[in-house]
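Figure 3 (text version): C-alpha cells given as input.
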C-alpha cells in the first residue's frame, strides 16, 4: 500500500522530512531532510535506493524530471 510505505519513510525517527516528490511512474519517491540530504525510496517496499548527501551545501528541495530519468 503506497500510503503505508510513504508513512513509514517519512516517520522514521530523526527523518526530519522537508519535502517529498513522486516519480512520474509512482514507483519511487525522493525525500529531502533537515540535514540537507535527499533520499530516493522504492514506494512499494519502502527500501532506500540511494542517498544524495550534501557536498557543497544543503539540498533544500528535489523533484523528478517529467520523464523520471533525472532528479
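Below: residues designed for each position.
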Amino acid at each position: 500500500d503506497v500510503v503505508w510505505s510513504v508513512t513509514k519513510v517519512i516517520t522514521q525517527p530523526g527523518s526530519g522530512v522537508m519535502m517529498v516528490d513522486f516519480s512520474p511512474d509512482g514507483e519511487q519517491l525522493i525525500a529531502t531532510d533537515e540535514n540537507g540530504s535527499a533520499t530516493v525510496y522504492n514506494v512499494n517496499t519502502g527500501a532506500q535506493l540511494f542517498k544524495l548527501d550534501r557536498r557543497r551545501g544543503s539540498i533544500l528541495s528535489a523533484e523528478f524530471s517529467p520523464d523520471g530519468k533525472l532528479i
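The radius of gyration is 11 Å.
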